[in-house]
Amino acid sequence: LHRDVRQRIQQRIAQAFGISSSLLYLTKPTFFSRINNTEAKTTHDEYWHPHIDKVTYGSFDYTSLLYLSDYSEDFGGGRFVFMDTDSNKTVEPQAGRVSFFTSGSENLHRVEKVRWGTRYAITISFTCNPDHSIGDPVLT
């Protein structure tokens, strides 16, 4: 399932940015996130700080998020916010919605603190550098 979803997202990113999907490679970390209103235990748990994925993770060139729960039904807060100089742009998560963007300084972003409920998402990111590529996760 992960491989199929990853391939579909990879193809859409390539199409949207006018590049060949064969030049995009899955990179780490690819992760499942479960965010609720419990107190952060480590600085990595403090998801609400503005950040740039390329700076945070190094290998990211394109970031995608597949939402698995619905804003205002399953959780409050937790919207994804692109922080622009003119005005912020907000994405309200909906189960099945995919958002993707370039991972550089042009896309400073944060996630609002979750006030109630649980926000689920999968982050699948891509690099253009084959040296930073990873294989699809497998069950052992």
TrEMBL record:
Keywords for this protein: Dioxygenase, Iron, Metal-binding, Oxidoreductase
An annotated GO cellular component of this protein is:
membrane
Q: Which superkingdom does the taxonomy of this entry point to?
A: Eukaryota
Q: Which GO terms describe its molecular function?
A: dioxygenase activity; iron ion binding; L-ascorbic acid binding; oxidoreductase activity, acting on paired donors, with incorporation or reduction of molecular oxygen
Organism expressing this protein natively? Nothocercus julius
Cofactor section: L-ascorbate
The yes or no answer to whether the keyword Iron is present is yes
Task: State the protein's name.
Answer: OGFD3 protein
Recorded hits in InterPro entries, A to Z, give: OGFOD3, Oxoglu/Fe-dep_dioxygenase_dom, Pro_4_hyd_alph, Pro_4_hyd_alph_FE2OG_OXY
Q: Which residues form the Fe2OG dioxygenase domain?
A: 28-130
